Amino acid sequence: MDQYEYEPLPTSEHVRLVTIHAGRFDDDIVLSYDIVAFTSNECPSYECLSYTWDEHSGSSLVHVVEKGRARAMHISGNLANILLHLRYADRPRVMWVDALCIDQNNDVEKGPQVARMGKVYRSAHRISIWLGKEENDSTRALNTMLWIGAKVTVDWVRLRVALRPECAVPDFQDIDTGIPLKPEDTEAIYHLCSRRWFERLWVRQEVILNEAQAVVQCGHYQVPWQPFRRGLACLYQKPRSWTPFDEKLNDRLLSLRGLMGQASTVPLGYIRASFGQSDCADPRDRIYALLEFLPEGDRAIVGSPDYTKDVEVIFRDIVWRHIKHYGSLNMLSQCQIDSKLASTVSWTPDWTSKKFIYGRNYWRGFASSHLGAMCAISEDGHMLKTPGASITTVEDLKEISAMDGRHVDVQVEETLRILVPGDVLERRYITGVSLLEAYARTSVANALSENQEPWSKQEPTLKEAQKIVLDALKKQEQEQQRPSEPPSGQTREVYKIMRAMLAGRKLMYGSGGYIGTVPQPTQKSDEICVLLGCHTPMVLRRVRDDVFRIVGECYVLGISEGEALLGPLPDGTRRLFASDPKSGVHSYFVNDRTGYQSLIDPRLQKLPLDLEDFPKQLKEDPNAQIQLKLEQLHSVFPQMREFGII
């Protein structure tokens, strides 16, 4: 039998649809193709498949019928098994399946087709999520998830669970009351959530963009996706009765936070935090699989998928275009020195990394105030040149554990006892606040409710954070075990924030008396620097003279809020956060004595700069930046020098 060869697509506006012809389960698989226009005016009726590729499952032969003639096509054994389960016995089924509908051996065709995939899934009248065959009590797991999800609603922006008014199950009334699960329920759910589908990056756009039409299927059994997803969120937020598999399930749920709380729009600066735990075979898809989630401006920066380019070139070009477009170095806060892409310059994020980062760290900083980037790139494209100031040198470090167990309160308290000195009540920090306040702010990276942060609304007050630090110090060593009563919902959320800000990092002691949290690869003699136009202080490692490599972002009290360049805020003035659909999260300032509010950093008004038009710019875009001229830079900030970053 002749091998099937794909007919070229007439334009990038066309797609292939595959028809699975009717048959019994054991019959040979027979397919046929139709090439259809896919525009806003023409949208054929079809279903989509969301599944896990398995290139090690062997090969299976299927028959492609074209003009009355059958041709042979080899597909993976995994996909063949899926088609057998999806095939109807009495009627054809029209679907879009990536491995079948895109010529995977044609990189030129693949780019435009990948760019269209988000629209293809968004327009499908049904999406079948194939998790695999029925095993490990998967039907019990699906039914349990459906039962849980039917009783709650979820605020997906804040990942907060609330009871549906019609729910009469007492155990769901209180966030602190455990979900009544049997040991066999927990085990079944753990095995189900451990299937490879949950780790795939592509499933985010395949499902989230059109989740009302999605169903989850194991073997021949299926449930709707939306209550299933709500069930995941409820399991993550509420305590559960202890079972032998609960610790494993807890770890698994932690790794699925990004999928549970997936936002419909994710800027480039947050894709590591949102998608970093997911997998894809081609590292270029760390960007291309997310096109439908990117804001319009970021999508233009990425451009059309191009599978003829190396991943390092793609990443570097995107970062440089992002810097030029926004006049900002904020993207550098996603960079870390332990990149797997050894040939990549350190100022390019390794979007292939699965190392978890907490998104809150990457928008909260204000180290450069409103000042925009003034950088250039070397002719060979490898060195980024930018003004900056070295503020402190790392003199000592303390390791912080990963804190990846279930009992977050125990782990955080143990960590605080290791990090915080016993005389914390007797000393003051370099900025003038008490050392207790310094450690309390550092333990949450200054994520306090006084800042009116727009996300979880669960942040502690400064007083509450200080109390947790003091309470941890008061406990005796022999009491460092699981407490008889777990913390309440609000306190548990504070512990989660502390874990997110501290886990897997190091506590840094810097010259001049600074303390802060830094990435794990940080070493003694590394420098904490403020790079103009970057919202977080950066840990840099000197290579030679004024040439450095990026180690990663950091939080340092007394540097992260712009103090290193502009000094402290005026007495009685605080920086707060607001959020709106157009501009996203942004800062504003309030004077507690007068109640006066302003979008502009009051410290800038003391500088010899013409800021007459800047308040108007901030009203249009609260994240607008001031672009200094070179002569202004040297006169206003004489401490700045040029950093070469490779």
UniProtKB/TrEMBL annotation:
Which superkingdom is the protein from?
A: Eukaryota
- A Pfam family found in this protein is HET
- The Heterokaryon incompatibility domain sits at 46-206
The record's section on InterPro entries has: HET (IPR010730), HetReg/Transcr_Mod (IPR052895)
Q: Where is the signal peptide?
A: none
Q: What is this protein called?
A: Heterokaryon incompatibility domain-containing protein
List the source organism.
Xylaria hypoxylon
